[in-house]
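Z., the sequence and structure:
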Amino acid sequence: MTHTVEKIGGTSMSRLTELRETLFVGDREGGDLYNRAFVVSAFAGITNLLLEHKKSGEPGVYALFANDDSNHKWQDALDKVQDAMKAAHAEILTHNGDVQQADMFVEERVLGARNCLIDLQRLCSYGHFRLPEHMGHIRELLSGLGEAHAAIVTAIMLQRSGVEARFVDLSGWRDEGDVSLEQRITDAFESIDPATEMPIVTGYAQCVEGLMNEFDRGYSEVTFSHLAALTGAREAIIHKEFHLSSADPKLVGEDAVRKLGRTNYDVADQLSNMGMEAIHPKAAKTLRQAGVPLRVTNAFDPGDPGTLIDDQPSEEAAAEIVTGLDIVTFEVFEQDMVGVKGYDSGILEVLKRHDVRIVSKVSNANTITHYLDASLKTMRRVERDVAKMFPAAELSTRRLAMVSVIGRDLSGLSVLTRGLQAIADAGCEAIGATQGPRNVDVQFVLDRDSMEPVIKALHGELIENTPIRLSNVA
């Protein structure tokens, strides 16, 4: 257990030349360069072009192919991907031979994907074959293009800098037969010696489990966590463009925020629930069960140890982070609900069917309110189905926000009382507030326009006004 497994996200990958001078090489020499395996994501924007834009929903190759009404649309989109990939590595690779090698790799992979899609269209023109049955595989095939491109470009760049870097392709390109994720990783690393070479690993791994079926675009963290667990890593490290801090520094100020320094997986789970993932919860579970601690660092601040996440409880009670999330509240009121079973399970079944994520919920004698991370378009379908199930119920939906104060141990801090007072002092009003018996988070529900001032107010009261803990060290 002398090596680390480290992950780099797509936004950071677009600053790859800077990472060479800080993270990959920097002032390291000889053996200090090694005992580190890097899992890389596609360059920023590439996966959006391959699938669909994560925020705007603008269709990429996958979405255009899935809704094909004109064969040239998805093919034009694939040409756009090829151009974007070449432009991305042209800014990183300085040697003509390296650029040519990367160009040839892109052309070969894009041509292979294009031929695959054309052949699939031709096959599905026969009645015995249905295109929807294959779309999951197509989504994975396209995703793997971006990850493989980023990994080989990184390896080429480092090799030019004198590093014994090895491109490790887990994407299953032209492999025959399906293997499990464990077998895919084990086979790839069987001949690798991390002490003498630096593996550069694709964030996407093709396997019989089908990572995208469950994790969609969060698959790279699953690959990362399994790689760390299976190889017995000393630490798993995620490199971001910023430190894991007590709040958004753009909101409360660079001088006001504090680097967490140390926290635990319980806090990481609460952050995920609020849409602020330090790591996917199931990836965290893999690391936790394997006894591998997680470290979150700023990739461009190599001298700082970042924040260590493990299973250790806090030595003292403290609020650690304040964050917010836009939510939709879904309220079901039924006067005859008292003492009657089935309402809660029925509502949950509808939410599950429409793939709606539940952030939190509250209930009383005749009302069940869910706080949801969902669009109003989806909620209209949810309301329709619940209305059919409970025709006498009164249903209401509101667009609100939730601000959460999170810490390993909030006991004895009167977070709920102090938080409500701080919100009032800021001239805002809390519509609702909840605190569970585990004392790891307190949630405040309010109007969306109040979210930012409330985050500032709670951060000021519960974090800025408390002394820095000496025990909070990574």
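Residues 96-123 form the longest helix (28 residues). The domain at 321-464 is CATH 3.30.2130.10 (VC0802-like).

Let me know what you think.
H.
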